[in-house]
Amino acid sequence: MIRFFQKTNIVVVYLLFLALVLIPNFLVLFFPNIFENPVISMFEDVSEGALFVMSVIVAPIFETLIFQTAIIFIIQFAIQNKLKRFWLSLIVSSLLFALNHIYSIAYFFFGIYVGGLFVIAYYVAQKRKVSATLFVIAIHMMNNLIAFFV
């Protein structure tokens, strides 16, 4: 699997991660009550444009910097064993990402899944010598863009 990510065109890798991240967004179409997000009602008075900028541009940047870049950097600095730091990064980052999206139990598990994919994407980009932060931000932005219109 690692060899696939190393040999495959980075655009294909990006599209693969995007497809995996989008799976929960399509579940929302079939189970809207389970994935109801009460935070959206807080922004009823906010213009569509401001909501778009916040959810599609600002949130992915800040969340990636906090929940992937900072956490992974600290863990990589503190732990020498590559396998241990990968698993610790995966667990800590995805749990904290999920706790930030705990609108419901379904969203919490959605957050663990997506947060975990973001960590894996981060490590794949790092291995490929591509900006891991920008790679994850791009996936996160596209996910939020599609979710914004769904």
Structure, described:
InterPro entries: Rce1/LyrA-like_dom. The chain crosses the membrane at residues 12-31, 51-74, 86-102, 108-125, 132-149. Residues 50-146 form the CAAX prenyl protease 2/Lysostaphin resistance protein A-like domain. The protein is mostly helical and 150 residues long. It has a domain at 66-150. It contains six helices and no strands. It has helices at 2-7, 10-30, 48-78, 82-99, 105-127, 132-149. Helix 3 (48-78) packs across helix 5.
Task: Describe the structure concisely.
78% of the residues lie in helices and 0% in strands.
Largest sheet: none
Rg from C-alpha positions?
16 Å
Low-pLDDT windows of residues: none
Tell me the β content. Answer: under 5%
Relative helix content = over 70%
Structural class: mainly alpha
Order of helices and strands: HHHHHH
Oligomer: single chain
What is the number of beta strands?
A: 0
Q: What is the terminal-to-terminal distance?
A: 32 Å
Shape: globular
Mean pLDDT, all residues: 86
Secondary structure tally, helices: 6
Search tags:
endopeptidase activity, mainly alpha, globular, 150 residues, 0% strand, membrane
List the helices and strands and how they pair.
Layout: H1 2-7, H2 10-30, H3 48-78, H4 82-99, H5 105-127, H6 132-149
Helix pairs in contact: 2-5, 2-6, 3-4, 3-5, 3-6, 4-5, 5-6
